[in-house]
């Protein structure tokens, strides 16, 4: 019987996903590879929205695809989100699939490391924030925060008290005032911390950057849950910047090795960027 509150994702549903998971060899290697396997994954509506609006969490996945997402979490060393998602969702960022640590399993076995990309230190977390509380209860790993400038002492102490860490990376300040880090440097930084695979869950600005030609080669696989709903025009859209070559519009990016897997009322699209 499944442990209390745990999600179940049975073997027949797991099989078609296997080719898109991080290579098994990476989890057994002594030396981490120079960059982690990156799985880009999110849930979208039929009008390519992640949520109803930027500050709002919107449930799109049905129970079967939610269990699938947690199965994916169990197969990655780390799970990364942008600070916009941390603020909007107060996410748990742990894995609640039956049999992992904290959900019927030993220690923190199968739990991914939550990583929040927060260059300006906007995330106001406290002891009651879900992923901090779960780390204290030993039902999830403590988060790492990637910042561009000195982290407030109180925040650093709170993170470290549950086993978390602050990582500082250079960022360039854009005209808009936004701090932008290079995704290649983010991946190298994670590899240096021993991370061999990372599941990037969003939100909109993170996904749109990784789908752009500048970074698409970093992505090892893409796994998208498509829910049978429309969210409307003011949603957070998955829609990378348009692209032109020789004065002509061309597709921004495209997947190959594509598989469509119906799961409950949703469909899960798996694919790989060209060349990966
Ligand atoms: N349906 C889904 O699967 C899903 C998944 C995640 C989030 N969401 C939703 O998406 C919304 C949040 O999306 P969003 O676009 O507002 O925020 P986001 O989560 O993409 O975070 C954006 C922030 O991340 C940081 N960031 C992103 N790229 C960076 C880079 N290259 N260098 C440095 N910092 C960088 C910046 O601080 C930026 O402001 C929420 O409503 C959330 O519920 C949905
Ligand atoms: N697969 C998926 N389906 C959804 O319907 C949805 N809204 C998200 N959103 C992803 C985002 O990263 C959220 O923050 C976490 O899904 C919340 O994570 P928790 O369950 O709290 O661990 N992801």
From TrEMBL:
EC number(s) recorded for this UniProt protein: 1.1.1.302
Name the pathway: Cofactor biosynthesis; riboflavin biosynthesis
* Single GO biological process annotation from the record: riboflavin biosynthetic process
> What catalytic activity does the UniProt entry give for this protein?
2,5-diamino-6-(1-D-ribitylamino)pyrimidin-4(3H)-one 5'-phosphate + NAD(+) = 2,5-diamino-6-(1-D-ribosylamino)pyrimidin-4(3H)-one 5'-phosphate + NADH + H(+); 2,5-diamino-6-(1-D-ribitylamino)pyrimidin-4(3H)-one 5'-phosphate + NADP(+) = 2,5-diamino-6-(1-D-ribosylamino)pyrimidin-4(3H)-one 5'-phosphate + NADPH + H(+)
| Annotated GO MF terms | 5-amino-6-(5-phosphoribosylamino)uracil reductase activity
What InterPro entries does the record tag this protein with?
DHFR-like_dom_sf (IPR024072), RibDG_C (IPR002734), Riboflavin_Biosynth_HTPR (IPR050765)
Residue ranges annotated for the Bacterial bifunctional deaminase-reductase C-terminal domain, each copy included: 36-269
Q: Which EC class is this protein assigned?
A: oxidoreductase
Say if the entry is tagged with keyword Secreted: no
Q: Which UniProt keywords apply?
A: NADP, Oxidoreductase, Riboflavin biosynthesis
- Organism's domain of life? Eukaryota
Q: What does this protein do?
A: Catalyzes an early step in riboflavin biosynthesis, the NADPH-dependent reduction of the ribose side chain of 2,5-diamino-6-ribosylamino-4(3H)-pyrimidinone 5'-phosphate, yielding 2,5-diamino-6-ribitylamino-4(3H)-pyrimidinone 5'-phosphate.
Q: Which family does it belong to?
A: Belongs to the HTP reductase family.
Task: Give the protein name, as stated in the record.
Answer: 2,5-diamino-6-ribosylamino-4(3H)-pyrimidinone 5'-phosphate reductase
User: What is the species listed in this Swiss-Prot or TrEMBL entry?
Assistant: Sporormia fimetaria CBS 119925
């Amino acid at each position: 019987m499944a442990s209390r509150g745990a999600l179940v994702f049975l073997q027949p549903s797991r099989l078609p996903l296997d080719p898109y998971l991080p290579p098994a060899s990476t989890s057994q290697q002594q030396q981490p590879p120079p960059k982690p396997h990156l799985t880009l994954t999110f849930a979208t509506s039929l009008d390519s929205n992640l949520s109803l609006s930027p500050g709002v969490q919107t449930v799109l996945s049905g129970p079967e695809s939610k269990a699938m997402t947690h199965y994916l979490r169990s197969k990655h060393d780390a799970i990364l989100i942008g600070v916009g998602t941390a603020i909007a969702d107060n996410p748990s960022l742990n894995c609640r699939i039956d049999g992992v640590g904290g959900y019927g399993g030993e220690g923190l076995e199968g739990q991914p490391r939550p990583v929040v990309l927060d260059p300006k230190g906007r995330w106001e977390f406290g002891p009651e924030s879900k992923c901090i509380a779960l780390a204290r209860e030993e039902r999830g790993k403590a988060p790492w925060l990637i910042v561009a400038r000195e982290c407030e002492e109180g925040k650093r102490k709170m993170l470290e008290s549950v086993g978390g860490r602050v990582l500082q990376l250079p960022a360039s300040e854009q005209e808009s005032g936004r701090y932008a880090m290079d995704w290649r440097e983010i991946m190298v930084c994670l590899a240096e911390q021993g991370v061999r695979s990372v599941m990037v869950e969003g939100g909109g600005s993170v996904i749109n950057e990784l789908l752009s030609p500048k970074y698409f080669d970093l992505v090892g696989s893409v796994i998208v849950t498509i829910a049978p709903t429309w969210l409307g025009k003011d949603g957070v859209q998955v829609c990378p910047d348009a692209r032109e070559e020789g004065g002509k519009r061309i597709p921004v990016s495209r997947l190959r090795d594509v598989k469509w897997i119906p799961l409950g009322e949703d469909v899960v699209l798996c694919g790989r960027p060209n060349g990966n």
